[in-house]
Amino acid sequence: MKSEPKRDPKRKIDIHYVAAHAGVSIATVSRALNRVPTVDPALAERVWKSVAELNYLPNTQARALVSGKSKLLGLIVSEITNPFFPELIQEFERVAVERGYEILIASTSHDPAKMEVVARRMLERKVDGVAIMTFGFGETFIERFAAIDIPSIFIDSPSKQPRSSTLSVDYREGLYEAVQHLAVLGHRKIGFITGPLHLVSAQARRTAFLDCLKSSGLPAEKSWIIEGDHTLDGGRDAMNKILALNHWPTAIMCSNDMTAIGVQHALFEAKLRVPEDFSLIGFDNIHLAEYTIPPLTTIRMSCKDLAQKAVRSLLSHLQPDGRPETEAVIPTRLIVRQTTGAPKASETTAKPAKKKAR
Question: Fewest CB within a 10 Å sphere: which of 101, 158, 240, 286?
Answer without folding.
Answer: 158
